[in-house]
Design a protein that fits this description.
With about 650 residues, the chain is mainly β. It contains eight helices and 40 strands. InterPro entries: Ig-like_fold, Plexin_repeat, PSI, Semap_dom, Semap_dom_sf, Semaphorin, WD40/YVTN_repeat-like_dom_sf.
Protein backbone atom coordinates (compact mmCIF):
# COMPACT_ATOMS: atom_id res chain seq x y z
CA UNK A 1 0.00 0.00 0.00
CA UNK A 2 1.31 3.49 -0.90
CA UNK A 3 -0.41 6.48 0.64
CA UNK A 4 0.59 10.15 0.41
CA UNK A 5 -0.77 13.07 2.37
CA UNK A 6 -1.01 16.58 0.98
CA UNK A 7 -0.43 18.97 3.88
CA UNK A 8 0.54 22.10 1.94
CA UNK A 9 1.81 22.99 -1.50
CA UNK A 10 2.88 26.42 -2.68
CA UNK A 11 5.04 26.37 -5.82
CA UNK A 12 5.25 27.82 -9.31
CA UNK A 13 7.03 26.76 -12.44
CA UNK A 14 8.69 29.06 -14.95
CA UNK A 15 8.82 27.70 -18.49
CA UNK A 16 10.23 29.40 -21.56
CA UNK A 17 13.67 30.36 -20.27
CA UNK A 18 14.09 27.17 -18.27
CA UNK A 19 16.35 24.31 -19.39
CA UNK A 20 14.33 21.66 -21.19
CA UNK A 21 15.98 18.85 -19.22
CA UNK A 22 17.74 18.74 -15.85
CA UNK A 23 20.32 16.12 -14.95
CA UNK A 24 22.09 15.27 -11.71
CA UNK A 25 25.48 13.82 -12.63
CA UNK A 26 27.03 11.07 -10.52
CA UNK A 27 29.80 10.00 -12.90
CA UNK A 28 33.04 8.93 -11.16
CA UNK A 29 35.28 11.09 -13.40
CA UNK A 30 35.89 13.78 -10.82
CA UNK A 31 38.80 14.98 -8.70
CA UNK A 32 38.47 16.35 -5.17
CA UNK A 33 40.95 18.91 -3.86
CA UNK A 34 42.25 18.08 -0.39
CA UNK A 35 41.55 21.69 0.61
CA UNK A 36 39.53 24.43 -1.12
CA UNK A 37 41.22 26.21 -4.05
CA UNK A 38 39.56 29.62 -4.31
CA UNK A 39 41.56 30.60 -7.42
CA UNK A 40 42.32 28.08 -10.16
CA UNK A 41 43.89 28.32 -13.61
CA UNK A 42 43.60 25.62 -16.27
CA UNK A 43 45.59 24.39 -19.24
CA UNK A 44 44.33 21.68 -21.55
CA UNK A 45 45.67 20.61 -24.91
CA UNK A 46 43.12 19.46 -27.50
CA UNK A 47 42.99 15.70 -27.83
CA UNK A 48 44.54 14.95 -24.44
CA UNK A 49 42.93 13.31 -21.41
CA UNK A 50 45.22 15.32 -19.11
CA UNK A 51 44.43 18.74 -17.72
CA UNK A 52 46.78 20.96 -15.69
CA UNK A 53 45.14 22.89 -12.87
CA UNK A 54 46.99 25.68 -11.10
CA UNK A 55 46.12 26.21 -7.46
CA UNK A 56 47.72 27.53 -4.29
CA UNK A 57 51.44 26.61 -4.42
CA UNK A 58 50.49 23.53 -6.43
CA UNK A 59 50.02 22.27 -9.98
CA UNK A 60 47.57 19.38 -10.24
CA UNK A 61 48.22 17.13 -13.25
CA UNK A 62 44.91 15.28 -13.70
CA UNK A 63 44.45 12.42 -16.16
CA UNK A 64 40.81 11.43 -16.66
CA UNK A 65 39.38 8.08 -17.73
CA UNK A 66 35.75 6.97 -17.88
CA UNK A 67 36.18 5.29 -14.48
CA UNK A 68 38.43 7.52 -12.39
CA UNK A 69 41.04 10.29 -12.28
CA UNK A 70 44.79 9.79 -11.81
CA UNK A 71 46.47 12.79 -10.23
CA UNK A 72 50.05 13.94 -9.86
CA UNK A 73 50.84 17.03 -7.80
CA UNK A 74 53.78 19.38 -8.34
CA UNK A 75 54.55 21.70 -5.42
CA UNK A 76 55.53 25.26 -6.38
CA UNK A 77 56.21 27.10 -3.15
CA UNK A 78 56.76 30.84 -2.73
CA UNK A 79 60.11 32.30 -1.79
CA UNK A 80 60.16 32.87 1.96
CA UNK A 81 61.56 36.35 1.37
CA UNK A 82 58.59 37.16 -0.87
CA UNK A 83 56.16 35.88 1.78
CA UNK A 84 57.75 38.02 4.50
CA UNK A 85 57.71 41.10 2.25
CA UNK A 86 54.09 40.47 1.27
CA UNK A 87 52.92 40.27 4.86
CA UNK A 88 54.94 43.33 5.83
CA UNK A 89 53.42 45.57 3.13
CA UNK A 90 49.85 44.28 3.64
CA UNK A 91 48.51 42.44 0.60
CA UNK A 92 44.87 43.00 -0.47
CA UNK A 93 44.12 39.84 1.53
CA UNK A 94 46.70 38.14 3.75
CA UNK A 95 45.74 34.73 2.34
CA UNK A 96 47.08 35.99 -1.02
CA UNK A 97 50.61 35.94 0.40
CA UNK A 98 51.28 32.61 -1.25
CA UNK A 99 52.17 31.36 -4.71
CA UNK A 100 48.98 31.12 -6.75
CA UNK A 101 49.59 29.60 -10.18
CA UNK A 102 48.00 32.09 -12.60
CA UNK A 103 49.60 31.07 -15.92
CA UNK A 104 50.03 27.61 -17.45
CA UNK A 105 50.65 27.89 -21.21
CA UNK A 106 52.49 25.93 -23.85
CA UNK A 107 54.26 28.08 -26.45
CA UNK A 108 55.67 25.82 -29.17
CA UNK A 109 57.69 23.33 -27.09
CA UNK A 110 58.07 25.56 -24.04
CA UNK A 111 55.74 24.92 -21.09
CA UNK A 112 55.58 28.21 -19.16
CA UNK A 113 54.28 28.35 -15.59
CA UNK A 114 53.97 31.63 -13.70
CA UNK A 115 52.69 32.38 -10.22
CA UNK A 116 52.04 35.30 -7.90
CA UNK A 117 54.90 34.26 -5.58
CA UNK A 118 53.39 36.21 -2.68
CA UNK A 119 53.26 39.52 -4.51
CA UNK A 120 56.58 39.09 -6.39
CA UNK A 121 55.64 37.12 -9.54
CA UNK A 122 57.96 34.40 -10.87
CA UNK A 123 57.97 32.20 -13.97
CA UNK A 124 59.31 28.70 -14.47
CA UNK A 125 59.51 26.14 -17.24
CA UNK A 126 57.76 22.80 -16.83
CA UNK A 127 59.85 19.90 -18.15
CA UNK A 128 58.75 16.28 -17.70
CA UNK A 129 56.34 17.41 -14.99
CA UNK A 130 59.12 19.09 -12.98
CA UNK A 131 59.21 22.83 -12.39
CA UNK A 132 62.53 24.36 -13.49
CA UNK A 133 63.75 27.74 -12.23
CA UNK A 134 64.67 29.28 -15.58
CA UNK A 135 62.69 29.67 -18.80
CA UNK A 136 65.02 28.60 -21.62
CA UNK A 137 64.65 28.39 -25.37
CA UNK A 138 64.61 30.62 -28.40
CA UNK A 139 63.58 34.23 -28.07
CA UNK A 140 63.21 36.50 -25.09
CA UNK A 141 60.90 36.70 -22.11
CA UNK A 142 59.50 39.75 -20.34
CA UNK A 143 59.59 40.33 -16.62
CA UNK A 144 57.40 37.85 -14.70
CA UNK A 145 55.38 40.82 -13.37
CA UNK A 146 54.28 41.51 -16.97
CA UNK A 147 52.95 37.94 -17.31
CA UNK A 148 51.50 37.09 -13.89
CA UNK A 149 49.73 39.47 -11.50
CA UNK A 150 51.14 39.84 -7.98
CA UNK A 151 47.86 38.69 -6.43
CA UNK A 152 45.25 36.24 -7.79
CA UNK A 153 42.41 38.75 -7.33
CA UNK A 154 44.00 40.85 -10.09
CA UNK A 155 42.68 39.48 -13.39
CA UNK A 156 45.19 38.62 -16.13
CA UNK A 157 44.94 36.96 -19.53
CA UNK A 158 47.55 35.00 -21.49
CA UNK A 159 47.29 33.68 -25.04
CA UNK A 160 49.85 31.77 -27.15
CA UNK A 161 49.82 32.65 -30.85
CA UNK A 162 52.23 31.79 -33.66
CA UNK A 163 55.13 30.93 -31.35
CA UNK A 164 54.75 33.95 -29.06
CA UNK A 165 52.97 34.60 -25.76
CA UNK A 166 50.65 37.59 -25.36
CA UNK A 167 49.70 38.86 -21.90
CA UNK A 168 47.09 41.35 -20.70
CA UNK A 169 47.34 42.66 -17.15
CA UNK A 170 44.40 44.36 -15.45
CA UNK A 171 44.91 47.60 -13.57
CA UNK A 172 45.09 47.50 -9.79
CA UNK A 173 46.45 50.01 -7.28
CA UNK A 174 48.97 52.21 -9.07
CA UNK A 175 49.56 49.92 -12.08
CA UNK A 176 48.23 51.16 -15.41
CA UNK A 177 47.36 47.80 -16.95
CA UNK A 178 48.79 46.71 -20.29
CA UNK A 179 48.67 44.42 -23.33
CA UNK A 180 52.08 42.95 -24.13
CA UNK A 181 53.95 40.40 -26.18
CA UNK A 182 55.88 38.73 -23.38
CA UNK A 183 57.68 35.69 -24.81
CA UNK A 184 58.94 34.42 -28.15
CA UNK A 185 61.22 35.22 -31.09
CA UNK A 186 59.43 38.47 -32.02
CA UNK A 187 60.10 41.85 -30.48
CA UNK A 188 58.45 42.32 -27.08
CA UNK A 189 55.88 45.13 -27.34
CA UNK A 190 53.41 46.90 -25.06
CA UNK A 191 50.55 49.37 -25.04
CA UNK A 192 51.13 53.03 -24.28
CA UNK A 193 49.80 54.00 -20.83
CA UNK A 194 47.42 56.61 -22.30
CA UNK A 195 45.65 53.99 -24.44
CA UNK A 196 44.05 52.16 -21.50
CA UNK A 197 42.14 53.65 -18.57
CA UNK A 198 42.24 51.24 -15.60
CA UNK A 199 41.42 48.18 -17.76
CA UNK A 200 39.95 44.97 -16.34
CA UNK A 201 40.57 42.17 -18.83
CA UNK A 202 37.98 39.55 -19.70
CA UNK A 203 39.57 37.45 -22.45
CA UNK A 204 41.55 37.28 -25.68
CA UNK A 205 41.22 35.42 -28.97
CA UNK A 206 43.11 34.88 -32.21
CA UNK A 207 41.20 36.05 -35.29
CA UNK A 208 42.59 33.89 -38.11
CA UNK A 209 43.18 34.97 -41.69
CA UNK A 210 43.98 33.10 -44.90
CA UNK A 211 46.84 35.60 -45.27
CA UNK A 212 49.08 34.95 -42.28
CA UNK A 213 50.35 38.52 -41.99
CA UNK A 214 46.75 39.72 -41.50
CA UNK A 215 46.19 37.56 -38.41
CA UNK A 216 44.93 39.60 -35.45
CA UNK A 217 44.39 39.20 -31.73
CA UNK A 218 41.37 40.70 -30.02
CA UNK A 219 41.53 41.60 -26.32
CA UNK A 220 38.31 42.10 -24.37
CA UNK A 221 38.17 44.36 -21.33
CA UNK A 222 36.31 47.04 -19.43
CA UNK A 223 37.66 50.52 -18.80
CA UNK A 224 36.86 52.97 -16.04
CA UNK A 225 34.12 55.42 -17.04
CA UNK A 226 34.55 58.74 -15.22
CA UNK A 227 31.17 60.01 -16.48
CA UNK A 228 29.07 57.07 -15.20
CA UNK A 229 25.83 57.90 -13.39
CA UNK A 230 25.28 56.86 -9.76
CA UNK A 231 23.07 53.91 -10.80
CA UNK A 232 25.43 52.79 -13.57
CA UNK A 233 28.37 50.39 -13.47
CA UNK A 234 31.47 52.67 -13.68
CA UNK A 235 32.86 50.80 -16.67
CA UNK A 236 32.69 50.77 -20.45
CA UNK A 237 33.31 47.55 -22.32
CA UNK A 238 35.96 47.56 -25.03
CA UNK A 239 37.58 45.44 -27.71
CA UNK A 240 41.28 46.07 -28.33
CA UNK A 241 42.98 44.75 -31.45
CA UNK A 242 46.62 44.22 -32.49
CA UNK A 243 48.27 42.49 -35.47
CA UNK A 244 50.59 39.55 -34.79
CA UNK A 245 53.10 40.83 -37.41
CA UNK A 246 53.53 44.08 -35.46
CA UNK A 247 57.22 44.77 -34.73
CA UNK A 248 56.85 48.21 -33.18
CA UNK A 249 57.56 51.69 -34.50
CA UNK A 250 60.71 53.71 -35.01
CA UNK A 251 63.22 54.96 -32.47
CA UNK A 252 61.53 58.35 -32.14
CA UNK A 253 57.94 57.05 -31.97
CA UNK A 254 56.36 53.84 -30.59
CA UNK A 255 59.73 52.06 -30.65
CA UNK A 256 58.63 49.42 -28.09
CA UNK A 257 54.88 49.82 -28.49
CA UNK A 258 52.19 48.46 -30.79
CA UNK A 259 51.72 50.31 -34.06
CA UNK A 260 48.49 48.48 -34.84
CA UNK A 261 46.59 48.86 -31.55
CA UNK A 262 43.02 50.08 -31.95
CA UNK A 263 40.04 49.87 -29.64
CA UNK A 264 36.25 50.13 -29.90
CA UNK A 265 33.40 50.50 -27.46
CA UNK A 266 31.10 47.48 -27.03
CA UNK A 267 27.43 47.86 -26.05
CA UNK A 268 25.35 45.14 -24.42
CA UNK A 269 21.73 45.92 -23.62
CA UNK A 270 18.27 46.43 -25.03
CA UNK A 271 18.81 48.84 -27.93
CA UNK A 272 19.38 52.45 -26.85
CA UNK A 273 17.53 52.02 -23.54
CA UNK A 274 19.06 52.74 -20.16
CA UNK A 275 19.20 49.00 -19.42
CA UNK A 276 22.83 48.49 -20.37
CA UNK A 277 25.47 46.05 -19.13
CA UNK A 278 28.82 47.79 -19.21
CA UNK A 279 31.17 45.53 -17.27
CA UNK A 280 32.57 42.74 -19.45
CA UNK A 281 33.47 39.81 -17.19
CA UNK A 282 34.52 37.18 -19.74
CA UNK A 283 34.61 36.67 -23.51
CA UNK A 284 34.94 33.70 -25.85
CA UNK A 285 35.19 33.64 -29.66
CA UNK A 286 34.16 30.96 -32.14
CA UNK A 287 35.68 31.12 -35.63
CA UNK A 288 35.93 28.66 -38.48
CA UNK A 289 39.50 27.76 -39.47
CA UNK A 290 41.25 30.46 -41.56
CA UNK A 291 38.05 32.52 -41.74
CA UNK A 292 37.23 35.87 -40.21
CA UNK A 293 33.56 34.92 -39.92
CA UNK A 294 32.57 33.94 -36.41
CA UNK A 295 30.86 35.05 -33.23
CA UNK A 296 31.97 36.66 -29.99
CA UNK A 297 30.09 35.83 -26.78
CA UNK A 298 30.59 38.34 -23.98
CA UNK A 299 29.54 37.84 -20.37
CA UNK A 300 28.50 41.18 -18.88
CA UNK A 301 27.23 42.45 -15.54
CA UNK A 302 25.41 45.63 -14.51
CA UNK A 303 25.55 47.83 -11.41
CA UNK A 304 23.33 45.37 -9.50
CA UNK A 305 25.49 42.36 -10.34
CA UNK A 306 23.06 40.71 -12.74
CA UNK A 307 24.82 38.82 -15.55
CA UNK A 308 23.82 38.48 -19.21
CA UNK A 309 25.41 37.20 -22.42
CA UNK A 310 25.55 39.25 -25.64
CA UNK A 311 26.60 37.85 -29.04
CA UNK A 312 28.52 39.82 -31.70
CA UNK A 313 29.46 39.17 -35.31
CA UNK A 314 33.24 39.01 -35.90
CA UNK A 315 32.57 40.27 -39.44
CA UNK A 316 30.85 43.37 -38.01
CA UNK A 317 33.77 44.01 -35.64
CA UNK A 318 36.30 43.54 -38.45
CA UNK A 319 34.33 45.92 -40.67
CA UNK A 320 34.26 48.57 -37.94
CA UNK A 321 38.04 48.41 -37.39
CA UNK A 322 38.61 48.58 -41.15
CA UNK A 323 36.29 51.47 -42.03
CA UNK A 324 35.28 53.55 -38.99
CA UNK A 325 36.52 57.07 -38.43
CA UNK A 326 39.05 57.52 -35.66
CA UNK A 327 37.76 59.37 -32.62
CA UNK A 328 39.04 62.94 -32.59
CA UNK A 329 40.77 62.71 -35.99
CA UNK A 330 39.37 64.21 -39.21
CA UNK A 331 42.39 64.74 -41.50
CA UNK A 332 43.09 62.46 -44.50
CA UNK A 333 45.37 59.46 -44.00
CA UNK A 334 48.79 59.22 -45.59
CA UNK A 335 48.80 56.03 -47.65
CA UNK A 336 47.15 53.00 -46.07
CA UNK A 337 44.80 53.35 -43.12
CA UNK A 338 46.59 53.61 -39.73
CA UNK A 339 46.60 50.46 -37.64
CA UNK A 340 46.17 48.01 -40.49
CA UNK A 341 48.11 44.72 -40.60
CA UNK A 342 50.87 45.33 -43.16
CA UNK A 343 54.37 44.00 -43.60
CA UNK A 344 56.95 46.47 -42.34
CA UNK A 345 59.19 47.80 -45.14
CA UNK A 346 60.46 51.35 -44.47
CA UNK A 347 62.32 51.45 -47.81
CA UNK A 348 59.13 51.77 -49.86
CA UNK A 349 56.88 54.81 -50.22
CA UNK A 350 54.12 52.80 -48.55
CA UNK A 351 56.46 52.08 -45.66
CA UNK A 352 57.26 55.79 -45.30
CA UNK A 353 53.55 56.62 -45.18
CA UNK A 354 53.01 53.97 -42.50
CA UNK A 355 55.71 55.65 -40.41
CA UNK A 356 53.90 59.00 -40.82
CA UNK A 357 50.71 57.33 -39.58
CA UNK A 358 52.36 56.31 -36.29
CA UNK A 359 51.46 59.67 -34.81
CA UNK A 360 47.82 59.14 -35.74
CA UNK A 361 47.65 55.80 -33.91
CA UNK A 362 49.65 57.18 -30.98
CA UNK A 363 47.05 59.85 -30.24
CA UNK A 364 43.86 58.42 -31.80
CA UNK A 365 43.66 54.65 -31.16
CA UNK A 366 39.87 54.55 -30.64
CA UNK A 367 37.36 54.21 -33.47
CA UNK A 368 34.03 56.04 -33.52
CA UNK A 369 31.80 53.08 -34.41
CA UNK A 370 30.17 51.28 -31.48
CA UNK A 371 29.99 47.47 -31.61
CA UNK A 372 26.41 46.35 -30.99
CA UNK A 373 25.12 42.81 -30.40
CA UNK A 374 23.45 40.56 -32.93
CA UNK A 375 19.70 40.73 -32.33
CA UNK A 376 20.13 44.05 -30.45
CA UNK A 377 19.46 42.59 -26.97
CA UNK A 378 21.20 40.06 -24.68
CA UNK A 379 20.50 36.36 -25.20
CA UNK A 380 17.27 35.15 -23.59
CA UNK A 381 18.73 33.11 -20.72
CA UNK A 382 17.49 32.17 -17.21
CA UNK A 383 17.86 34.95 -14.65
CA UNK A 384 17.56 32.96 -11.40
CA UNK A 385 21.29 32.12 -11.16
CA UNK A 386 24.33 34.28 -11.89
CA UNK A 387 26.69 33.12 -14.65
CA UNK A 388 30.32 32.94 -13.52
CA UNK A 389 32.14 31.33 -16.46
CA UNK A 390 31.49 30.34 -20.05
CA UNK A 391 33.09 28.35 -22.86
CA UNK A 392 31.74 27.62 -26.33
CA UNK A 393 32.00 25.11 -29.15
CA UNK A 394 31.17 25.21 -32.84
CA UNK A 395 29.52 22.00 -34.06
CA UNK A 396 28.98 20.66 -37.58
CA UNK A 397 25.41 19.32 -37.64
CA UNK A 398 23.72 16.71 -39.84
CA UNK A 399 22.56 19.44 -42.27
CA UNK A 400 26.22 20.37 -42.94
CA UNK A 401 25.87 23.70 -41.12
CA UNK A 402 27.72 25.04 -38.08
CA UNK A 403 25.93 25.69 -34.79
CA UNK A 404 27.13 27.39 -31.60
CA UNK A 405 26.84 25.60 -28.27
CA UNK A 406 27.49 27.57 -25.07
CA UNK A 407 28.33 26.05 -21.70
CA UNK A 408 27.51 28.46 -18.88
CA UNK A 409 28.82 27.80 -15.37
CA UNK A 410 26.78 29.34 -12.56
CA UNK A 411 27.16 30.67 -9.03
CA UNK A 412 25.45 27.52 -7.71
CA UNK A 413 27.85 25.13 -9.43
CA UNK A 414 25.51 24.13 -12.26
CA UNK A 415 26.26 24.10 -16.00
CA UNK A 416 23.75 25.17 -18.66
CA UNK A 417 24.12 23.70 -22.17
CA UNK A 418 22.72 26.24 -24.65
CA UNK A 419 22.09 26.08 -28.41
CA UNK A 420 22.36 29.47 -30.15
CA UNK A 421 20.90 29.60 -33.66
CA UNK A 422 20.35 32.55 -35.98
CA UNK A 423 16.77 32.78 -34.69
CA UNK A 424 16.78 31.95 -30.99
CA UNK A 425 18.40 30.59 -27.86
CA UNK A 426 17.39 27.09 -26.75
CA UNK A 427 18.49 25.80 -23.35
CA UNK A 428 19.15 22.12 -23.98
CA UNK A 429 19.87 21.01 -20.42
CA UNK A 430 21.11 21.85 -16.96
CA UNK A 431 23.72 19.73 -15.17
CA UNK A 432 24.04 19.56 -11.39
CA UNK A 433 27.57 18.25 -11.03
CA UNK A 434 29.03 18.75 -7.61
CA UNK A 435 28.59 17.33 -4.12
CA UNK A 436 29.58 20.71 -2.63
CA UNK A 437 27.59 23.60 -4.09
CA UNK A 438 29.78 26.54 -5.07
CA UNK A 439 30.49 28.79 -8.05
CA UNK A 440 32.08 27.44 -11.21
CA UNK A 441 35.56 29.02 -11.25
CA UNK A 442 36.95 27.76 -14.56
CA UNK A 443 36.14 25.54 -17.53
CA UNK A 444 38.04 24.06 -20.46
CA UNK A 445 36.60 22.47 -23.59
CA UNK A 446 38.09 19.75 -25.79
CA UNK A 447 36.23 19.68 -29.11
CA UNK A 448 38.54 17.04 -30.54
CA UNK A 449 37.87 14.37 -27.90
CA UNK A 450 34.46 15.71 -26.90
CA UNK A 451 34.93 16.64 -23.25
CA UNK A 452 34.11 19.56 -20.97
CA UNK A 453 36.18 20.14 -17.81
CA UNK A 454 34.53 22.11 -15.00
CA UNK A 455 36.25 23.32 -11.84
CA UNK A 456 35.02 24.71 -8.53
CA UNK A 457 36.92 25.42 -5.31
CA UNK A 458 36.40 21.79 -4.27
CA UNK A 459 36.30 19.63 -7.42
CA UNK A 460 37.18 19.21 -11.08
CA UNK A 461 34.67 17.21 -13.12
CA UNK A 462 34.64 15.99 -16.72
CA UNK A 463 31.50 15.78 -18.85
CA UNK A 464 30.95 14.45 -22.38
CA UNK A 465 29.95 17.13 -24.89
CA UNK A 466 27.77 14.56 -26.67
CA UNK A 467 25.54 13.23 -23.91
CA UNK A 468 23.06 11.56 -26.25
CA UNK A 469 22.21 8.57 -24.04
CA UNK A 470 20.47 10.85 -21.52
CA UNK A 471 17.78 11.99 -23.95
CA UNK A 472 15.75 8.80 -24.08
CA UNK A 473 15.17 5.80 -26.31
CA UNK A 474 12.70 7.24 -28.82
CA UNK A 475 13.20 9.30 -31.95
CA UNK A 476 10.92 12.02 -30.61
CA UNK A 477 12.92 12.46 -27.39
CA UNK A 478 16.17 12.57 -29.35
CA UNK A 479 14.93 15.20 -31.82
CA UNK A 480 13.29 17.41 -29.18
CA UNK A 481 16.60 17.61 -27.32
CA UNK A 482 17.88 19.83 -30.19
CA UNK A 483 21.44 18.85 -29.34
CA UNK A 484 23.80 19.46 -32.32
CA UNK A 485 26.06 16.64 -31.12
CA UNK A 486 23.26 14.04 -31.33
CA UNK A 487 21.07 12.49 -34.02
CA UNK A 488 18.57 9.66 -34.35
CA UNK A 489 19.94 6.57 -36.08
CA UNK A 490 16.95 5.10 -37.92
CA UNK A 491 18.63 1.76 -38.55
CA UNK A 492 19.81 1.17 -34.97
CA UNK A 493 16.86 3.04 -33.41
CA UNK A 494 19.17 4.91 -31.04
CA UNK A 495 20.09 8.49 -30.21
CA UNK A 496 23.80 8.57 -31.08
CA UNK A 497 26.73 10.96 -31.33
CA UNK A 498 27.22 12.41 -34.82
CA UNK A 499 30.36 10.57 -36.00
CA UNK A 500 33.37 12.57 -37.28
CA UNK A 501 33.28 13.09 -41.04
CA UNK A 502 29.56 12.29 -41.26
CA UNK A 503 28.36 12.50 -44.88
CA UNK A 504 25.00 14.23 -45.10
CA UNK A 505 24.28 12.84 -48.57
CA UNK A 506 24.82 9.17 -47.72
CA UNK A 507 24.06 9.21 -43.99
CA UNK A 508 20.77 8.20 -42.38
CA UNK A 509 20.70 10.28 -39.19
CA UNK A 510 17.75 12.52 -38.29
CA UNK A 511 18.17 15.91 -36.63
CA UNK A 512 16.14 19.11 -36.38
CA UNK A 513 17.90 22.02 -34.65
CA UNK A 514 16.22 25.20 -35.88
CA UNK A 515 12.79 24.36 -34.46
CA UNK A 516 11.27 21.96 -31.92
CA UNK A 517 9.64 19.71 -34.52
CA UNK A 518 9.64 15.96 -34.05
CA UNK A 519 7.30 15.25 -36.99
CA UNK A 520 10.39 14.05 -38.90
CA UNK A 521 10.13 10.90 -36.78
CA UNK A 522 6.72 9.87 -38.16
CA UNK A 523 5.68 8.42 -34.78
CA UNK A 524 2.68 10.62 -33.99
CA UNK A 525 -0.01 7.94 -34.05
CA UNK A 526 1.95 5.52 -31.87
CA UNK A 527 2.69 8.24 -29.32
CA UNK A 528 -0.94 9.23 -28.90
CA UNK A 529 -2.00 5.65 -28.21
CA UNK A 530 0.71 4.82 -25.66
CA UNK A 531 -0.54 3.92 -22.18
CA UNK A 532 1.31 3.19 -18.97
CA UNK A 533 0.35 0.42 -16.58
CA UNK A 534 -1.48 2.11 -13.64
CA UNK A 535 0.17 1.82 -10.23
CA UNK A 536 -2.36 0.90 -7.57
CA UNK A 537 -2.69 3.15 -4.53
CA UNK A 538 -4.96 2.10 -1.67
CA UNK A 539 -6.65 5.19 -0.24
CA UNK A 540 -7.56 5.15 3.49
CA UNK A 541 -10.91 6.65 4.33
CA UNK A 542 -11.08 10.47 4.77
CA UNK A 543 -7.41 10.98 3.85
CA UNK A 544 -5.86 13.73 1.75
CA UNK A 545 -3.97 12.15 -1.14
CA UNK A 546 -1.59 13.63 -3.69
CA UNK A 547 -0.28 11.94 -6.82
CA UNK A 548 3.27 12.74 -7.99
CA UNK A 549 4.18 12.93 -11.67
CA UNK A 550 7.91 13.30 -12.42
CA UNK A 551 8.65 16.26 -14.72
CA UNK A 552 11.12 15.25 -17.41
CA UNK A 553 10.85 18.02 -20.00
CA UNK A 554 10.43 21.48 -18.47
CA UNK A 555 9.20 22.75 -21.85
CA UNK A 556 6.17 20.45 -21.82
CA UNK A 557 2.70 21.27 -20.46
CA UNK A 558 1.51 18.87 -17.78
CA UNK A 559 -2.13 18.01 -16.96
CA UNK A 560 -3.93 15.21 -15.16
CA UNK A 561 -6.83 13.30 -16.69
CA UNK A 562 -9.28 10.83 -15.16
CA UNK A 563 -10.56 7.79 -17.04
CA UNK A 564 -14.15 8.09 -18.22
CA UNK A 565 -14.12 11.80 -17.45
CA UNK A 566 -13.59 14.61 -19.95
CA UNK A 567 -12.29 17.01 -17.31
CA UNK A 568 -8.59 17.95 -17.03
CA UNK A 569 -6.96 18.75 -13.69
CA UNK A 570 -4.04 21.19 -13.51
CA UNK A 571 -0.70 20.54 -11.83
CA UNK A 572 0.63 22.05 -8.68
CA UNK A 573 4.41 22.13 -9.16
CA UNK A 574 6.90 21.29 -6.46
CA UNK A 575 10.50 20.88 -7.56
CA UNK A 576 10.61 18.31 -10.32
CA UNK A 577 7.08 17.00 -9.68
CA UNK A 578 3.71 17.84 -11.16
CA UNK A 579 1.37 17.04 -8.28
CA UNK A 580 -2.37 16.27 -8.33
CA UNK A 581 -3.84 17.11 -4.96
CA UNK A 582 -7.27 17.45 -3.35
CA UNK A 583 -8.45 20.86 -4.50
CA UNK A 584 -11.97 22.03 -5.22
CA UNK A 585 -13.81 19.88 -7.82
CA UNK A 586 -11.03 17.31 -7.94
CA UNK A 587 -12.51 14.01 -6.69
CA UNK A 588 -9.48 11.99 -5.57
CA UNK A 589 -11.54 9.00 -4.53
CA UNK A 590 -11.44 6.04 -6.88
CA UNK A 591 -10.50 5.57 -10.51
CA UNK A 592 -7.51 5.83 -12.83
CA UNK A 593 -5.69 9.17 -12.98
CA UNK A 594 -3.21 9.76 -15.81
CA UNK A 595 -0.47 12.43 -15.98
CA UNK A 596 -0.18 13.73 -19.54
CA UNK A 597 2.67 15.83 -20.97
CA UNK A 598 2.11 17.85 -24.15
CA UNK A 599 5.10 19.11 -26.13
CA UNK A 600 5.55 19.94 -29.79
CA UNK A 601 1.85 19.21 -30.37
CA UNK A 602 2.05 15.61 -29.11
CA UNK A 603 0.53 14.31 -25.89
CA UNK A 604 2.33 11.55 -24.03
CA UNK A 605 1.30 9.68 -20.91
CA UNK A 606 4.00 9.92 -18.23
CA UNK A 607 2.51 7.89 -15.37
CA UNK A 608 -0.87 6.68 -14.14
CA UNK A 609 -2.37 5.64 -10.79
CA UNK A 610 -5.39 3.53 -9.89
CA UNK A 611 -6.92 4.72 -6.61
CA UNK A 612 -8.75 2.12 -4.52
CA UNK A 613 -10.66 3.13 -1.35
CA UNK A 614 -10.35 0.61 1.50
CA UNK A 615 -12.62 2.49 3.90
CA UNK A 616 -10.10 2.62 6.81
CA UNK A 617 -8.70 5.88 8.28
CA UNK A 618 -4.97 6.54 8.15
CA UNK A 619 -3.17 6.74 11.52
CA UNK A 620 -3.30 10.30 12.85
CA UNK A 621 0.33 10.19 13.92
CA UNK A 622 1.51 9.65 10.36
CA UNK A 623 -0.75 12.44 9.09
CA UNK A 624 0.67 14.91 11.57
CA UNK A 625 4.36 14.12 11.08
CA UNK A 626 4.83 13.70 7.35
CA UNK A 627 5.59 16.97 5.54
CA UNK A 628 5.51 17.69 1.84
CA UNK A 629 9.29 17.57 1.33
CA UNK A 630 9.46 14.14 3.00
CA UNK A 631 6.53 12.88 0.97
CA UNK A 632 8.16 13.99 -2.28
CA UNK A 633 11.37 12.26 -1.23
CA UNK A 634 9.40 9.07 -0.63
CA UNK A 635 7.68 9.57 -3.99
CA UNK A 636 11.05 9.89 -5.74
CA UNK A 637 12.24 6.58 -4.32
CA UNK A 638 8.92 4.92 -5.04
CA UNK A 639 8.77 6.05 -8.67
CA UNK A 640 12.29 4.76 -9.31
Amino acid sequence: MNSFILLSLFATIIAGKSPRLKFVVHEPSRFHFSKPENYISMYHQEGSDTIYVGGRAMIYVLTFTDRDVRDYQIPVASDQTAIDTCKAKAAPLELECDNFITVIQKVNDTFIVCGTNAGSPRCWMLVNDTVMTDVQGAGQIASASDISPPYPSQKSITLPADGSLYSAMSSVGGSAGSIRRTFGPQKLLKTENVWLLNPQFAGAAIIPSAEKFKEEIYFFFSEFNKSARVDEEPYRARIGRICTVDEGGIRALLADSWTTFMKARVMCGAGNTQQQYNNMKQAVVLTAQDKRAGVLYGLFSNAWGRTVVCAYSIEDIDQAFSTSKLKGYSSPFMGSRPGMCVRKNPATAEGQNNIKNLGVIRYHPEIEDVIRPVGVAPLDLPTDDQITHTVADIVMAVNDEHYSVLYLGTEQGKVLKVLHTSEEVFIISQYSLFHNEGPVLNMAIDSQKGHLYVGTAMEVQRLPLADCRRYGDTCRECILSRDPYCGWDKARRKCITIPPGYNVTSGALIQNLDHSNSSVCGEAAALKLRRTSPREVVVPFNTSIFLPCPVRSFHATYRWEKDNCFKNYPCLFSGDFCVLGPVVDTPLKEGVFRCMATEDGFKVEVISFRLVNDGRPLAASLASTLGLSLLLAVATLWLH
